[in-house]
Design goal:
single chain, DNA polymerase, domain 1
């Protein structure tokens, strides 16, 4: 910007001078945008100063700096802790190996099938570094055995991972109250240490290191920790800084935003920005976080709606969520999805899996005394299909229905949606969701069907639910679940979210 001459040197007040000193190293020449979210600070820096004895005045170089006013944002102490390569580390410890020195990958595969069809769920740090392994790649993409003789492939043990995750949570409880802890995933947790960190040391770094050591000494697991003034800063510090440090610790502050968040060049490296969103941002000229922070708010709002406001706030490190203030969604949904162990081409087999998943989710809403007023179906095509055509990677459709929780009615709608939108493509992913839930107080009868038959279906579903709840899913299954392509029986033996027969959670 062109230089401007102030009326008097004394015109810069103390607040501005303090801001100058604080942001001296953060000088950014930006375009002034009018926004309620941004505080525009016009500051004069003495980049050069010439003193005119005769005129008794100073000449300043002026620059416009746009900075967020963080005074009214939450200033807390948040720890984001991640168990490094969690699944792989658990397997390494189970085998008596050091998680940081073991070279192994956790692979899921269909029983009695070769490793080549398996999907890599996790890889140890050494395996990632040595052979370029990453999650969701296929075993067939690995280097041959003679090129990777030290690489071990192991099957997953979900019960072990759940047990270790609970043990890590128990350690967290030693340092903070339950309401200040949020398990973000099976291997990541957020701890609000604002009220408790001083009980364990005089420095946040020391306290974080103490928690890391406690987890390692107790369980043998290595952890990375990001520290921030809000959950967003803590997460970004962990993902973009701590994971690359020997100490596996990093602390990001609001005042560090120009030197931390704005230096993130790849949009996909930011929490909450997926590939699709990143590509949309690039189409409007936003290629990195600095561009995002200095973009026009109205443009983001026009392109992304309310998400645009969220993206702008994220670029400035703003996150107003408080861990102990739990979020309760206005409308709950129930669903389940499955990545198939092979490509499905046969319509009968695909519809069989849709029916099994649809009935499993229906049992869940019945267990909570609910009915669904909307059904949603997502079908993801296989990589083979994507290689053959670039038209679409799948389809997602939904339909409003008369509220019900009867298997026959719900599955009928799902099958109808599938047949209307499927054109013979090979399928690899199936997902079912029920929304618009309401209490199951009465049964809505269809005037076009036999009343007695509808009542019998309703009662039969509840009787089957009760038997399975008492004796297990496999105590009573449909004969169709024994046919080729069926997955319900196999999935009922799995754990957690992988369990297709876990209808009562």
């Amino acid at each position: 910007m062109r230089e401007q001459r102030p009326e008097r040197c004394a015109s810069a007040n103390s607040a501005i001078e303090a801001t100058c000193r604080t942001y001296l190293s953060y000088q950014k020449v930006g375009k002034i945008e009018k926004s309620n979210n941004l505080k525009i600070i016009q500051v004069a820096f003495a980049n050069y100063c010439s003193y005119n004895i005769n005129q008794q005045e100073q000449m300043f170089s002026w620059k416009v700096i746009i900075m967020y006013d963080y005074r009214y944002e939450p200033h807390r102490l948040i720890f984001m802790i991640d168990n490094k390569s969690f699944f792989a580390s658990c397997e390494a410890l189970r085998l008596g190996l050091n998680p940081m020195e073991a070279c192994l990958a956790v692979v899921s595969r269909q029983p009695d099938s070769c490793w080549g069809s398996g999907l890599i769920m996790a890889a140890s740090p050494l395996a990632k570094k040595k052979y370029g392994l990453h999650n969701v790649m296929r075993v067939r993409q690995l280097p041959p055995k003679w090129k990777a003789p030290d690489l071990k492939l192991v099957e997953p043990h979900m019960n072990l991972y759940i047990k270790r995750s609970i043990q890590v949570l128990d350690i967290f409880r030693k340092y903070a109250a339950n309401e200040d802890i949020h398990m973000y995933s099976i291997d990541e947790g957020i701890i609000d240490m604002t009220d408790s960190w001083r009980l364990f040391g005089n420095d946040p770094y020391y306290v974080a290191r103490r928690i890391q050591k406690d987890i390692h000494d107790t369980l043998g697991l290595y952890t990375t920790c990001g520290i921030g003034e809000n959950p967003l800063l803590a997460k970004l510090a962990m993902d973009n800084s701590a994971k690359h440090k020997k100490s596996m610790l990093a602390f990001w502050h609001y005042l560090d935003v120009p030197d931390t968040i704005w230096k993130i060049k790849k949009l996909e490296d930011v929490w909450g920005i997926n590939t699709r969103t990143a590509n949309r941002l690039r189409k409007i000229g936003i290629n990195n976080m600095y561009d995002l922070a200095h973009s026009k708010p109205y443009l983001l709002k026009k392109e992304f709606g309310i998400i645009g406001e969220q993206l702008l706030a994220e670029s400035w490190g703003v996150d107003r969520s408080i861990i102990r203030q739990k979020y309760h969604p206005k409308s709950k949904s129930y669903g389940n999805s499955q990545v198939l162990t092979r490509d499905y081409f046969n319509q009968r087999e695909i519809e069989l899996v849709i029916r099994e998943i649809g009935e499993q989710v229906a049992a869940r809403i019945r267990a909570h005394n609910l009915r669904a007023g909307k059904v949603s179906l997502y079908i993801g095509f296989s990589l083979f299909q994507l290689a053959e055509t670039t038209k679409r990677g799948g389809f997602g459709v939904q339909r409003k229905i008369t509220p019900t929780n009867v298997n026959h009615d719900l599955v009928k709608e799902l099958i109808a949606l599938f047949r209307e939108n499927w054109h013979g493509e090979s399928v690899r992913t199936i997902s079912v969701n029920y929304t618009d839930l309401s209490p199951d107080g009465t049964q809505q009868l269809n005037m076009l069907e036999d009343f007695d038959l509808q009542i019998k279906r309703y009662k039969l579903d509840h009787i089957v639910d009760q038997i399975r709840k008492e004796h297990g899913f496999t105590s009573l299954v449909k004969a169709s679940s024994l046919l080729k392509g069926a997955t319900a029986i196999e999935r009922s033996n799995l754990v957690g979210g992988h369990n297709g027969g876990n209808a009562y959670e």
